[in-house]
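User: Design a sequence. Structure:
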C-alpha cells in the first residue's frame, strides 16, 4: 500500500527588501509645495490683470507663506516650494507695478484736460495758407509754444476744459497798480509791474473755477515769476469765478518782472494741462 505524498509547502511570502541601516531614503512628495506653486502661478496671472489685482494680492501672500512652510518639511522634495516662493515674490512686484500704472492712468484721466491746441490770430491780409507756411517754417527750429518759439498775443489756447486768450500786456503797469489800491506795494527795486489781461472760457462738461487756469511770467534767464510773489489788488483782478459750460471771465494780473527783461508768459489751461508760452 502506497503512502500519499505530503502536500507541498506554500512558498514563504516575499518581504520588501529592507534598506541597510544609514542608507538615504527617497524623498517624499511635497503636496504642500505643489499647492503653494499652483496658488503662486494663479496669483501671478491675476496680478498681471488690472481688473483682477485684488485676487492676485490675496493669492500671492498665501502662496508665499505655504512655500516657506513647505521648505521646512523634512524628507520631501523642495524644488516646487522654491518655485512657488520665487513666483510669489515676482508676482507681488509685478502686481505693484500694474497697480501704480492703473492709478497713474486713472489719475491722468480724472484730472487731465486733454490735448492742448492753439489757434493763432491772423494778421490782416494774411490768409490761413500763409499762416500755415509760416508755422511750418518756424517749427523747423523749435516746436511752437515753447520758450524758443512762443505763440503771439491773442492766440487761442484750448483743451477739453478751457480756452484761454491773452488779449493785452501793459509793460508799464506801475501807475495802474498804484491807482488801483492805495495799499498796493510798489514793485521791488530793479523791477516793475506788467499787467496781463486775459479771458478764460470753460468748455468742460460740468463746471470749473477760473483759478484752475495758471498764468506765470518767465524771465529770459528762466526764472518763474508768479503773481503771488507780490500780490496787489487791481480793479479787475481775477477772482474765484465759478463757470459752467460756455461761461467766460476776463480779468488782469500783475507781475513784478526785472527791468529791461523781455519776459514770456506761460499759460497752463488747467491744473495738469500742457504749458504753452506766449510772447507779448
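Assistant: Done.
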Amino acid at each position: 500500500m502506497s503512502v500519499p505524498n505530503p502536500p507541498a509547502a506554500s512558498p514563504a511570502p516575499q518581504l520588501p527588501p529592507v534598506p541597510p541601516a544609514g542608507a538615504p531614503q527617497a524623498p517624499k512628495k511635497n503636496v504642500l509645495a505643489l499647492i503653494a506653486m499652483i496658488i503662486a502661478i494663479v496669483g501671478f496671472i491675476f496680478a498681471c490683470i488690472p481688473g483682477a489685482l485684488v485676487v492676485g494680492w490675496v493669492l500671492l501672500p498665501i502662496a508665499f507663506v505655504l512655500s516657506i512652510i513647505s521648505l521646512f518639511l523634512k524628507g520631501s522634495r523642495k524644488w516646487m516650494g522654491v518655485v512657488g516662493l520665487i513666483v510669489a515674490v515676482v508676482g507681488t512686484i509685478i502686481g505693484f507695478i500694474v497697480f501704480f500704472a492703473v492709478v497713474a492712468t486713472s489719475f491722468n484721466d480724472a484730472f487731465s484736460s486733454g490735448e492742448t491746441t492753439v489757434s493763432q490770430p491772423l494778421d490782416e491780409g494774411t490768409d490761413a495758407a500763409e499762416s500755415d507756411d509760416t508755422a511750418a517754417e518756424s517749427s523747423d527750429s523749435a516746436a511752437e509754444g515753447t520758450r524758443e518759439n512762443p505763440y503771439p498775443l491773442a492766440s487761442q489756447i484750448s483743451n477739453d476744459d478751457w480756452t484761454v486768450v491773452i488779449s493785452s500786456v501793459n509793460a508799464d503797469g506801475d501807475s495802474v497798480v498804484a491807482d488801483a489800491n492805495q495799499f498796493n506795494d510798489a514793485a521791488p527795486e530793479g523791477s516793475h509791474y506788467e499787467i496781463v489781461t486775459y479771458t478764460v472760457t470753460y468748455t468742460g462738461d460740468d463746471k470749473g473755477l477760473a483759478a484752475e487756469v495758471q498764468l506765470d511770467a518767465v524771465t529770459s534767464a528762466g526764472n518763474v515769476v508768479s503773481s503771488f510773489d507780490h500780490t496787489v489788488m487791481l480793479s479787475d483782478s481775477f477772482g474765484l469765478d465759478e463757470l459752467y459750460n460756455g461761461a467766460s471771465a476776463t480779468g488782469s494780473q500783475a507781475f513784478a518782472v526785472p527791468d529791461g527783461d523781455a519776459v514770456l508768459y506761460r499759460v497752463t489751461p488747467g491744473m495738469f494741462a500742457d504749458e504753452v508760452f506766449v510772447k507779448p
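The helical segments are 31-47, 53-71, 79-111, 128-139, 174-180. The chain has two domains: 31-111, 117-279.
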